[in-house]
Amino acid sequence: MRVLVAMSGGVDSSVAAARMVDAGHDVVGVHLALSSAPGTLRTGSRGCCSKEDAGDARRVADILDIPFYVWDFADRFKEDVIDDFVASYARGETPNPCVRCNEKIKFSALAARALALGFDAVATGHYARLSDGRLRRAVDADKDQSYVLAVLTADQLRHAIFPIGDTPKPQIREEAARRGLAVADKPDSHDICFIPSGDTRTFLGSRIGMRRGRVVDSAGAVLAEHDGVHGFTIGQRKGLGIAGPGPEGTPRYVTAIDADSGTVRVGDASELDVWTLTGERPVFTSGSAFSRPVEGEVQVRAHGGLAAGVAELRGEQLVVQLRSAIRGVAAGQTMVLYRPDADGDEVLASATIRSAD
């Protein structure tokens, strides 16, 4: 089988490539250039796609004796991931750019080009598993990335391979060291890859600009002014620009954001309770939409907890009624529905949250 391996220059994708070679596949490595002006060096574990990362990926490919290329996806990445991220925050939402990158770049643009060039599949270093075409959690629960892959369609999953999802991360590092790969001890990337400084508010402010509004309490009393709703997210407690706690000495949290009026409402923790999730653009990883209500567990953050609920398709929206309330859910987040089983939780569906009531 001809396999294209997306090689970021990190330890996970490097071991994924090595395992594909060991399996006897015809393997080609490709590094995605996602920045029009990549930095020379990474800053610790922040950022990715630097010239250093590309060099690391190339050296691994040389050791594995596989062809290696760098594909420029910078324009597509800016349009489908960065611009989408900025626009979502401007609407008062809280998006996950990793979800969008997997959906639009790695398993849409990249996979489409790979298939057009005659490859049979795309392999990545994601921590997830595929079983009979079904997406499941990785063995390593702490590193599981099935959440950010849950937007993939059944057709995309048919052409995907996740070679390391059956192995805990410490063993992946040990394997890389045994293979003589210099990336064995390379720090993991985290935070938002295109904001290496980690200062999301400044990044958004430079692109959205100043859009003054007000911070109000539950009764509508004005507590402060702000420079833009992009500086806030549901459940936020710090950096609200208000003096002190609520009237009874309890902490105050962002409970609602109205981007049209520029209003940010704050209240106590109980106002964050959510019992119903409504999502748009649902994706059913099996390829078949629900024909009846389905019991499952919902996750609304990449590393968040699970909440039991009943999901059903209503028109073009996926609606989940929760068995118990969860807190701090924002429009723009991705909700993923899992079905627990003995073989590892299976991803059933995902949707972009439109409302949380």
Secondary-structure topology with pairs:
Layout: E1 2-6, H1 11-22, E2 26-33, H2 51-64, E3 68-72, H3 74-90, H4 97-116, E4 121-123, E5 128-131, E6 134-137, H5 146-149, H6 154-158, E7 160-161, H7 169-178, H8 200-208, E8 213-216, E9 222-226, E10 253-258, E11 263-267, E12 273-284, E13 294-299, E14 306-314, E15 317-327, E16 334-339, E17 346-356
Parallel strand pairs: 1-2, 1-4, 2-3, 4-7, 8-11
Antiparallel strand pairs: 5-6, 8-9, 10-11, 12-15, 12-17, 13-14, 13-16, 14-15, 16-17
Give the overall shape, derived from the CA principal axes: globular
Question: Order of strands side by side in the largest beta sheet?
Answer: 12-15-14-13-16-17
Estimated share of beta-strand residues: 25-35%
Task: Write down how many β-strands occur, each being a DSSP E stretch of 2 or more residues.
Answer: 17
Distance between termini? 48 Å
Provide the low-confidence segments as ranges.
none
User: Could you estimate the helical fraction of the residues in percent?
Assistant: 25-40%
Instruction: Provide the CATH architecture of the domain at 2-125 and 163-185.
Output: 3-Layer(aba) Sandwich
Q: Say what oligomer this is.
A: single chain
Biggest sheet layout: 6 strands, antiparallel, barrel
CATH C-level category of the domain at 2-125 and 163-185: Alpha Beta
The secondary-structure element order is EHEHEHHEEEHHEHHEEEEEEEEEE
Radius of gyration: 21 Å
Mean of pLDDT: 92
**CATH superfamily assignment of the domain at 2-125 and 163-185?**
HUPs
Broad structural category: alpha/beta
Query: What's the CATH topology name of the domain at 2-125 and 163-185?
Result: Rossmann fold
Organism: Mycolicibacterium arenosum
Domain tRNA-specific 2-thiouridylase MnmA-like C-terminal: 277-353
Binding site for ATP: 6-13, 32, 125
Site (Interaction with tRNA): 126, 333
